[in-house]
Amino acid sequence: MARAITTRRKVTFTIIGWLVGFVIFFPILWTILTSFKTEGEAIASPPHFLFFDWTLQSYFDVQSRSNYFKHVMNSVVISFGSTLIGLAIAIPAAWAMAFSPTKRTKDVLMWMLSTKMLPPVGVLVPIYLLFRDWGLLDTRLGLVIVLTMINLPIIVWMLYTYFKEIPGEILEASRMDGASLAKEIIYVLTPMAVPGIASTLLLNIILAWNEAFWTLNLSAANAAPLTAFIASYSSPEGLFWAKLSAASTLAIAPILILGWFSQRQLVRGLTFGAVK
Amino acid sequence: MRLKSLMLGACSLIAMAGFAQAETLTIATVNNGDMVRMQKLADDFKAKNPDIDLQWVVLEENVLRQRVTTDIATKGGQYDIMTIGTYEVPIWAKQGWLLPLDKLTADQSYDVDDLLPPIRSGLTYEDKLYAAPFYGESSFVMYRKDLFEQAGLTMPDAPTWDFVGEAARKLTDKSKEMYGICLRGKAGWGENMALLTAMSNSFGARWFDESWKPQFDQPEWKETLEYYVNLMKEAGPPGASSNGFNENLALFQTGKCAMWIDATVAASFVSDPKESQVADKVAFALAPDKGLGKRGNWLWAWTLAIPAGSQKTEAAEKFINWATSKDYLNLVASKDGWLNVPPGTRTSLYENQEYLKVAPFAKMTLDSINSADPTKPTVKPVPYVGVQFVAIPEFQGLGTAVGQQFSAALAGQVSVDQALQNAQQLSEREMMKGGYIK
Amino acid sequence: MATLRTRSAARLMMTPAVLTLFVWMIVPLAMTLYFSLLRYNLLMPGMEEWAGTLNYRYFLTDPAFGAALVNTLLLVGGVLLITIVGGTLLALLLDQPFFGQGIVRLLVIAPFFVMPTVSALVWKNMLMHPVYGIFAWIARLFGLQPVDWLANLPLFSVTMIVAWQWLPFATLILLTALQSLDEEQKEAAEMDGAGPISRFIYIVLPHLARAMTVVVLIETIFLLSVFAEILVTTNGGPGYESTNITYLVYAQALLQFDVGGASAGGIVAVILANIVAIFLIRLIGKNLEA
Asked: How many CB pairs under 8 A join A and B?
């Protein structure tokens, strides 16, 4: 009863909320607007916000130069592939850590996270040499392997924290019923774990989608994802803002739309054990 | 190993399934306008060579350089044709990483003697051509003739630094966002150091003496850097220390710079009325000098080369022949007009009346290129090759580190003396590590 | 008996993850360690020779090293500070009911989906550029002299860009935590006559502590290896103003192609990162227990 919300209060927060949202979103909005300008208009000063000659020229230019859909396909395969494989490896591990913890569980988790601390540039040459010998350079398989490995620690940790909050009594009960380990996982654990798995999946797709170091350095023509697509529009000699903006908009769009549509699922499990 | 043979097996299966006779060339290139056009026009090549398929990897300059260098040094074999600059060619040729283009030089219709001598000599190692130039550039002054006229100034065809400095200060009106001169300031061996090294040559400075001792403690460098920093402080745009080629291009095209000293290829951008607001007001002059016999202009070419381990050398050489031939220039001219042909590689282009008619900057470009000498870049003798770079493997890192110091001096974070002292220290360290000096 | 069975089952289930990660860690690490003791430049093949500690000596005495160390900490610390404070405020805001709340939430989380290189390019040239950037335009609207962000405040500018990218992540985690706070608890406090500020300090903040810990830990791991943003905007300059350890390693690896030097730098970076990690876990690990 004390929480009756006055309209004035709501209006105030509406104004503040939209203002803040606009400011944070502005760089992206500006990129999208710029993608509809001509190159000359893109660097006009003072800037033109909405009143300029809208044109799709940059999108045509981008389309005529690169095979956008091939890059999108590569990005999809690499990010979904690495995430799914990562989940397949991580779910059992996280399950074991959550329900059968030992004294060293925490250390193992911390060790896993610490594998992410070697700066990628420092190990580029060793990895490149190995990939060359194994014939993995410029293959989707190679990129899937790398991204699986670099995101695995985060996947394990996220799942572990989520699983840990599943009450153990339910498992005990199912065990009493004589359910086997496999059944326990399939019928009891999985339904409860789905929200956590879903948001882990989404977060890792986003991370893999935007990973720009390995994907750029280990691919050439066949496996090149959208990060390479962007690299072919940034900083050439000559004006490139409108074209880069168009390419950026195209590169961000799929993941942004996916993220927006699934944000509820993303948020549900995105706690890393932060919620008790 | 097992994985590799599996993959190879899979590949050969696919190959047998239908592409048996079509060879696919993977071409790595920069995303500059001329290369993008080459990609667009490649249908012409495919029509003439139906048995060759082309696959393009187009990347921005820095990323491309990392990719192809890593690949060639580890013999990764991902590319059949690489686009590299005049900095890489002599170093890589010396390592035996590049295939000499013997067939190309022997081809009468290719007419290798038509290549501009300074460009050709930069791509030649032990009398063999290791890369074919796609386009070449020097640097010169681009200026606004309308502003010069208003101020009662006349730009000579071959100005001195003194005149440039004086004019720049006179034309600056910061309250109207009008800056006398725009120069590169962003740290990087190919960014501010390209300009500053070329500029220092005209002041008589050099990177190393004959025994590889760094020379930043010499008065010539001090004079160069002091001149540059003072000029930019008084007549340059704000944010100069993070401006590279593109930032300055945007400034000049929107009419905010009275002068801009940069690559000759910029001439066609600033003269293009579709992009440039000052297209009809631009004129050109040679890079300034100091009366010491050297001008502050550089020499660069983007070239096509074949890695030594490639299995498809014959097809690759065919493509390079096509892309750097006289016919290619004609092809571009017929499709997009003479203004858009890749400049700076062939003498015949500069004798072509049709080209000279549309390109008022052609003569200046040719003179600039011809006056640059990579083997004798500056007044005093040097142990290295290269005008605005030093063709040793250590240079990319060292040049960028020194560039950071000079960019800090421009931003006013360290004094000119301090920047030079740091640069000297850095270079001595690097030379010692590389075993050049004890 | 069941425990024994589950124990071994548990071990079995952990094996794939632990084993693959172990291989992924140990093989490159061993190679890096080995290369770090060689004089090995990619551009000069055939000259590899034993170099002992030469690479480490040069990396650690690099005049940029000290500055890079400080910058790394400042960058990580700065981004953490901005994202935690900003994230908390945003979470509090988004927790309020208002018109179009769902859409605003979408706008706020959007930066998380943008590739680092793209956001760096956009910030540098479209927002921060002192002549035709939006910030300069705003400054001039108020008759002020535009700030030359990347020249005068390079590290701060990079911090801003990175913080913008990570703000949504912090906001989302903190918002989830906030929404799990017991309504009854809040109402009870309200009935006790606690004002909004004391309610925030005594009830909300302690509740968010765990979430903040998580944000700090995860972001730190990613922030220690930030370099694309620096490469695109300032190239580590002017001077060493925005050079961090990762950028220094990058310069060794992909500008010099000095594999030996880069490997030594990589090892040094790992050691430093682990020191930070141990420190972090000591400092805030308690929050993660139980």
From this structure: 111
Average pLDDT taken over every residue of chain B? 90
Q: What is the model's pLDDT at position C286?
A: 61
Question: Which tokens go with A30?
Answer: 């500006």
Please name the residue of chain B whose CA is at the shortest distance from the CA of residue A40.
B275
- Helix axis angle for B33-48 and B326-336, nearest 10°, is 110
| Euclidean distance between CA atoms C245 and C286, whole angstroms | 29
Q: Which superfamily, per CATH, for C22-288?
A: MetI-like (1.10.3720.10)
pLDDT band for A238, please (50, 70, 90 cuts): confident
Cβ–Cβ below 8 Å for B60 and A64: no
Q: Which residue of C96, C167, C246 is in closest CB contact with A13?
A: C96
Beta carbons of B239 and C129 less than 8 Å apart:
yes
CA distances from A36 to A49, A54, A241, B397 (A): 11, 5, 10, 38
CA distance A217 to chain B (A): 6
Tell me how close the Cα of C34 comes to any Cα of chain B, in angstroms. Answer: 17
Contacts of C42 in chain A (CB under 8 A): 125
Query: Which of chain A's residues have a Cβ under 8 Å away from the Cβ of B39?
Result: 65
Bridge partner list, B179: B257
Q: Does A152 touch chain C (CB under 8 A)?
A: yes
Look at residue C289 and tell me whether its pLDDT is greater than 70: no
Interface test with B, best of A226, A237, A239, A240 (most B CBs within 10 A): A237
CATH for B138-298+374-433 is 3.40.190.10
Count H helices and E strands in chain A, helices first.
14, 0
Residues of chain C above pLDDT 90, percent: 22
Q: How far apart are CA A21 and CA A36, in angstroms?
A: 22
The residue whose two tokens read 């240079």 is B395
Q: For residues B210 and B382, is the Cβ–Cβ distance under 8 A?
A: yes
Q: pLDDT digit string (tens) for B7-47?
A: 544 444 444 444 445 789 999 999 888 999 999 999 999 99
The token duo for A205 is: 């797709």
Where residue B182 falls (left for φ over 0; alpha for ψ -120 to 50; beta otherwise) is: beta
> Among residues 183-242 of chain A, which lie with CB inside 8 Å of chain C?
206, 209-210, 212-213, 226-227, 230-231, 234-235, 241
Please state, in angstroms and rounded to a whole number, the distance separating the CA atoms of residues C135 and C127. Answer: 6
Q: Give the residue from chain C lying closest to B408, CA to CA.
A: C238
| CA–CA separation, A14 and C104 (whole Å) | 9
Domains of chain A: 7-60 (no CATH), 67-269 (1.10.3720.10)
A191: preceding bond cis by omega (within 30 degrees) = no
The CATH architecture one would assign to domain B2-136+300-358 is 3-Layer(aba) Sandwich (3.40)
pLDDT at A97 over 80: yes
Give the C-alpha separation, C242 to C161, whole Å. 13
Q: Does B8 touch chain A (CB under 8 A)?
A: yes
Note whether B249 contacts A: Cβ–Cβ < 8 A.
Answer: yes
B206, B417 contact by CB (below 8 A): no
pTM assigned to the model: 0.87
Rounded Cα gap, residues B1 and B254, in angstroms: 57
How large is the average pLDDT for residues A204-224? 89
Measured CA distances, B258 to A67, B273, B298 (Å): 40, 18, 21
Where are the domains positioned within chain B?
Answer: 2-136+300-358, 138-298+374-433
One-letter amino acid of B399: G
DSSP secondary structure letters along A64-83: HHS-HHHHHHHHHHHHHHHH
Distance, CA of C94 to CA of B176 (rounded, Å): 43
Which of C235, C248, C259 has the highest number of chain B CBs within 10 A, making it the mutation to test binding with B?
C235
B-C Cβ pairs (cutoff 8 Å, strict): 117
